[in-house]
Amino acid sequence: MPTHSLIAGATDADGWHGVGAPGGYEWWYFDGEDGGGEVQIVGIILDGFVFHPGYLRRHFRYLRNPTKHAPAVARDFPCAYFVIYDKGKIAAQFMTQYPAGTLVAAADGVRVEMGTNSLVREDGEYRLQMQGTPWKLTGRGPQTLVGQRLSVDWRVSAVSVHAAEERRFLSREMTGAEHHWVLAAPHGTFEAVVKLQGGPGDREWRLKGRGYHDHNYGTGPLGPGLKRWIWGRALFDDACYTFHYAVPRDGGLPAEVHVLRVTPGGGVKDVSPKAEAVLGAFDRRSGVMGGFAGYPGELDLGVIKLSQPKVVDASPFYMRMVYRAECQGRVGTAFCEAALPERLRWPLLGRMIEMSFDKRK
Q1: Is the distance from CB of 310 to CB of 88 less than 8 angstroms?
Q2: pLDDT in tens, 275-329
Q3: What values do phi and psi take at 249, rounded to 5?
Q4: Three-state SS at 53
């Protein structure tokens, strides 16, 4: 089997790690919710989109016959994703796939460029600028809206100032790979201007509220070995609570749970319960897109208790929900995502998903 450098490494935990492992990935994730709670935005710059059906096809083809097929690596699938939700519905979104090697980034700081997208960190403030062609779902499947443009100019500042902390999650026993979770600025504030232009009616959102940023990278896909997976975060003025909860496909392995609390005075603290103490079941299904994806109606993670979910985005393999969150006496909302990654290998579903991508030459 060919030899590859798995991870080149970074001198800044939030910098580029140069993942070279077959099936590896790295992404910088941002989200924010406006002060009124009616609008949420998510932006991700990906060096290797680990949920790309084409990436997964190439990766598993390589594993089946490594002497015949070259491995897919992160640099082959650079992507940019952005979505804005308004009053519980998708207002606009894009997914852009760029040519291999388009992403350029620094290992000693946060400087990332890819096509019309860029991310920099200066004096503790992040600035994320993104632009792409939106898409919508039609009777014939996803359709990119040629001639329209969706853009965001986004600034995030940390409330809890601390050095970026790195944790492991989703064990090798469960997934067959190493996965790293960098808590860079999980407890922050943000300001953003989002513009949708070129359609029947231009729209503009000027947003301000609480913001979240973390960073993930790993040496292989997340999906293998996972039966169910949910992650999320709840933001308050004085704290952030963020978590991952994963149920393995192998019934002989235990579920895995990671819960972290971030506060201005205490930094990042692990407050995870034992996996067997987690209460809740993936017992709800959405009526959207065939209702394939399941999510918990309630989930008790010890210091985080989630209830009363409202679905804002649904597909056969993932869902985003806003929950009522109770966190050690605090009551607010939690922005969460549930996923069934193995469904990305369904041929028809995979092809449908790829129809939503704007593939740049």
Answers
A1: yes
A2: 999 999 888 877 654 455 689 999 999 999 999 999 999 877 788 999 999 999 9
A3: -75, -30
A4: helix
User: What angle do helix axes 53-64 and 347-354 make, rounded to 10 degrees?
Assistant: 130
Residue 350, helix vs strand vs coil: helix
Nearest Cα neighbor of 93 from 135, 41, 63, 138 is: 135
* Confidence band for 337, pLDDT divided at 50, 70 and 90: very high
Q: How many CB atoms lie within 10 A of CB 189?
A: 18
Predicted TM-score (pTM) of the model is: 0.94
Tokens at 293, concatenated:
């994806």
Q: Where are the domains of the chain?
A: 25-359
Which tokens in the block code for residue 218? Answer: 């790993």
Q: Work out the widest C-alpha separation in the chain, in whole angstroms.
A: 57
Bin 189: left if φ > 0, else alpha if -120 < ψ < 50, else beta: beta
Residue type, 71: P
Contact 227, 59 (CB under 8 A): no
Report how far residue 315's alpha carbon sits from residue 95's, in angstroms, rounded to the nearest whole number: 15
